[in-house]
Each structure stands twice: as C-alpha cells, then as structure tokens.
Amino acid sequence: MVNYTYKDVIASLSEKLAAAGITNYYWEARELAGFALGFNCRGKFDQTAKATGEQINNVALLLARRLMGEPLQYIIGEWDFYGEPFEVGAGALIPRADTETLINAAKKLFEGKAALVVADLCAGTGCIGITLERELDCKEVYCVEKYETAMYFLKRNISAKRSGCRAILADVKDAETTKLLPQADLIVCNPPYVTDEEMTKLQKEVAFEPEEALRGGEDGLDFYRAIVREWKYKLKDDGIMLFEIGAGQEDEVMEIMIQAGFKDVRTRSDMAGINRCVFGKNHEYEAVSLYEQLDNKNNERTAD
Questions:
Q1: Predicted TM-score (pTM) of this structure
Q2: How far is CA 244 from CA 93, 151, 269, 283, in A?
Q3: Which three-class secondary structure string do you get for 32-81?
C-alpha cells in the first residue's frame, strides 16, 4: 500500500479537480482534504504526516461526489455565513457571501433601534434571520419557509445557535400566511429570482440546489411582486422591506416597490460593486395641496 502524506493528498485532489475544470481547485482540495482527514487544512499543519487507509478512502469518496458536480458545501455539510457556520445540505439554498450585503444594509438602517420585530421570508437555512437576531437588537424574529427539506436545516440551525427565532412552515406567497405574524419593523427576503431562461443554463453545481429556491418565473420577479403585494401591510409605520436581487434586477424591483407606495427606495451594492439589495420604507405621506400648505402657514401666523 502506498503511503500518502497529507501533502500528497492535497496535491492529488488539486490535480483531479483542476482536470475536471474546477476553477478554485487548490482551495477546494484543502477544504475536501480537511473534511476527509478530520482537521482544518486552512491553517498550518504537518504536511509530512501519513494519511491512514480510512482517511484515503474518505478522500476518494468525497472526490467522487465532487466530480459528479455535487456542491462542496453539500459535501461538507455546512458553510460560513457572516463569520458563523450554518448546516446545509440537499434541499436548502447554500448561504452565499453576496447575501451578507443584506445583513450590512439592515445593520446600517436600524442602527441604534431596539426591540425590533423581524420577518425573514423564504428563510431556507435561516442564515439571514439568525444572523440578524445576533447583529440587531431584536425582540422577535420569524423565519418563514415553505418546504420541509429546507425547514429541517432551518430548525437545526436555530437549535445549534441557541437562537430564539421562530420557524414557520408556510408559503410566503399565500395571503393567509401574513396572518401568522405580527406587524414588523423589517421584512427581509432573499427570494428565488432566476429567470426561466437562466434556469436552463445553470452551472452544474447550482443545478444541485433546489429549483424552488432558485426559479423566480419568466422574468425572475414573481416573488417580488407577490411579497410586495401581500406583505407591505405587515410593516409598521416607517418599517422597511429589504430584498436581495439578482445582478441587473434593481430597476425592475425598485419600480415594483415604488408602484406599491414605498418611499425612499434605494439599492446597496456588494463587495464586487454589483447592486445586490433593494429596500424601501413603508411611510404614507399625506397628500396636501400647495393651497392647503399656504392656508396652514397663514393660520400659524394668525395664531402667533
């Protein structure tokens, strides 16, 4: 039997992943090796140590799964989001760094505000709701998810993080679901937003993720329309609705929110400079004519 060192294992994984056309082959090799060998390969370790036969078998099994196109995150079973690991697997959308833009935007919008009520729609693993609970001063956080497979990971992450988030199994596009939650300061959502055409061109890894967490209809905007329509009235006065969007969708989503009466509708960009969030305030301004404004001013002067 050949004696492989940890360095040999990583080199072999890198070679095979590169040959399969995987771009970040060396980084992925270290991640897979760490999972198979049982320790963190991101830092320093003794690369001359010999791998056991069981470890070599584990490496071979994980490599086979990856070469079939299974996402690295599903293989490892967890992924970091905003500095914390979240359990993830088949049936749940993988947490992505782009989505951290939602957290940064919410922190800025609600800085200094306390006892917030937050609704995380299309919650998936719960990475958004659970992280907001940690990063904001929240009184209540509700995570709404339609599918049992994703709900499994949502509940496990709530338990693992000892979170007070409340998991609700329901369809966010159903008007009846809105009755299950109280009025909220923040409604946040990373909805399915991939167009029907884009669904036919997904990368192999992305195609492993649940279609229901990706497909947003012919133009990718079905969920934005439904959520704005059904959930606007669950916001408190000056409450905020905050969406993640796909690249290039900002104008359409902003228009949907503006037409629904949202004010101060704006965008936030991610680390790559791509507009990744759209948000707006639920604040109804009283329509007052110029003549009414002048009358009010005159009345104020008379009173003085």
A1: 0.89
A2: 14, 20, 10, 21
A3: HHHHHHCCCCCCCCCCCCECCHHHHHHHHHHHHHHHCCCCHHHHHCEEEE
